[in-house]
Amino acid sequence: xxxxxxxxxxxxxxxxxxxxxxxxxxxxxxxxxxxxxxxxxxxxxxxxxxxxxxxxxxxxxxxxxxxxxxxxxxxxxxxxxxxxxxxxxxxxxxxxxxxxxxxxxxxxxxxxxxxxxxxxxxxxxxxxxxxxxxxxxxxxxxxxxxxxxxxxxxxxxxxxxxxxxxxxxxxxxxxxxxxxxxxxxxxxxxxxxxxxxxxxxxxxxxxxxxxxxxxxxxxxxxxxxxxxxxxxxxxxxxxxxxxxxxxxxxxxxxxxxxxxxxxxxxxxxxxxxxxxxxxxxxxxxxxxxxxxxxxxxxxxxxxxxxxxxxxxxxxxxxxxxxxxxxxxxxxxxxxxxxxxxxxxxxxxxxxxxxxxxxxxxxxxxxxxxxxxxxxxxxxxxxxxxxxxxxxxxxxxxxxxxxxxxxxxxxxxxxxxxxxxxxxxxxxxxxxxxxxxxxxxxxxxxxxxxxxxxxxxxxxxxxxxxxxxxxxxxxxxxxxxxxxxxxxxxxxxxxxxxxxxxxxxxxxxxxxxxxxxxxxxxxxxxxxxxxxxxxxxxxxxxxxxxxxxxxxxxxxxxxxxxxxxxxxxxxxxxxxxxxxxxxxxxxxxxxxxxxxxxxxxxxxxxxxxxxxxxxxxxxxxxxxxxxxxxxxxxxxxxxxxxxxxxxxxxxxxxxxxxxxxxxxxxxxxxxxxxxxxxxxxxxxxxxxxxxxxxxxxxxxxxxxxxxxxxxxxxxxxxxxxxxxxxxxxxxxxxxxxxxxxxxxxxxxxxxxxxxxxxx
Length: 758
Ligand code: GAL
Prior knowledge:
Number of strands: 43
Number of domains: 5
Number of helices: 8
Bound molecules: beta-D-galactopyranose
Helix content: 10-25%
Radius of gyration: 27 Å
């Protein structure tokens, strides 16, 4: 256990009062209780008790076929020092902070009940000074997901960080500090800080900053100040959703956003700041500037990263206002939701990245049959609770029910999921800000391209092979591939932007290989979604480059697809090029196959989502505006190369080569991991002697780690593969897989992948 001395005041020469933080991350004893009655084991918190599996097809595919429904007990011994006990005896307090426990945690200290919470996505703090003693203390946390309902994987247990703070008399209550910009003119900012003292009184301080450097997505500048010996970061900026767009520091910023669930792929729900940073680096490379924390309160450190890296955040508290929000049914629903909203806003209100509070997602209208629904009075009540806790930000909701359109008078901004629903809101309430809070729900897999020809129409899925095609021509029936959305949002200039469903594949909701899809064989239910622009492990799919070509204004994109290994599999192959340029020339073994140019505009292409487009190839006409396509290229092995241009000037090139000869397994450090990360990712790939990926390779391999490291997860983007993420034997998926490693000490760590039998 790390014991961090945060603050030391010498009140008298011979007397010191200290504030201590005991970091409670790290090793705990854990056992399942109830039917399983597992033995005690040592686990590392943050910990997700279900991610090791096994995947079980008898379990719910919505939640990844994983055994998260359980009860579990965590126990840790904490040695409290004499000085800390003295601080408590003389009027101090001890605060036990959890960033999130899934779910319904009940905490005991030395056998005595200390309190708990019900909503697994929101942390909580307990005052436990009265329960501590000098020397050994036992902290026990019981988690229970048996009454939890979720539409996607939520994991189980102490999946986020925890700590114990012991503070002397006269301290500022942790979590009470609120830092805000009271006034901002170009030359000066007036900053106000408010807090609660332990005696119940309020504290307040104001100060000015001349020529403030504003926090922005391109320059996420953070200031730091101190309250009661603790450092707090804050940013100075203005943000506003207006009827004609979103403004950051007075400049209109188009939101190129993604929705992201809280799981971290191979790591499950167990939070890792390094893995989250890597995820955000991948998003940044794609040109993302906004994150929607679908549909729950993120880990507080996730928002620290967004502050540091310059993402604006649509901070969402709930999916629905029901048991998915931790409501147990025995309290007044509205009072409960209001209370959670207040705690959520209080927790996150110092983050400059947070630009809006979202009070829910796709909540049906209130009717006699749906008690937890949307109605204007209820929305206003929740809105008022949020505004009271933070008067500095706007408040919104994400919805898909057009019947709710007239219920949102009290909100500043509404997000509409899919199609052009935001336009319905715009027509009904022209002065309101709108955006597309969920766009996409496109499907694709890394590496799979059918028989070298794209899917015929939007819902033409490969029901035989249960793979979604990498040509980016599939989407769920109510969703769209990227191109028509780019076009629609360009035309609807009032729309603040889009949040694509989803930035990465996530565990659970494994559409389209999900139980409710016609023709899907139970034995082939997938474990994760296909919606991601990036796969579950962090490999960018081709779609990544389509978004990148449209969104990343800093760097050029030239990306060619598919791979070029079609011997005996296809005679004619469709080739696409995703580029930030406006033209490209394609070469096969040095011979030009022609230069193609994107269509500048297609003013007649329908902006509305048309259901008859589900099975109509005309749907794809708009792709000519955003991608380049060469149909029926006669296959021959060798090199396929694209050279891209803008306004006639070359901007870059990309090539795909045919892999041949001997193939071996190669490991390489994932380029989005940080060199100093404690948890980092390593790519495993089957390569020929020249470093060309063998895209059909599905070999099994074993993982060995040499040096001070341990494997914490491994797998591929294959949604049908049910091998445990903790297994040291994995399989390549279209030539690739990923291994996540934890550094345990100094020294070189070697990750070795060896061919093996399954
Ligand atoms: C939306 C919903 C998301 C996800 C998505 C899949 O309706 O808000 O949580 O289920 O559909 O397309």
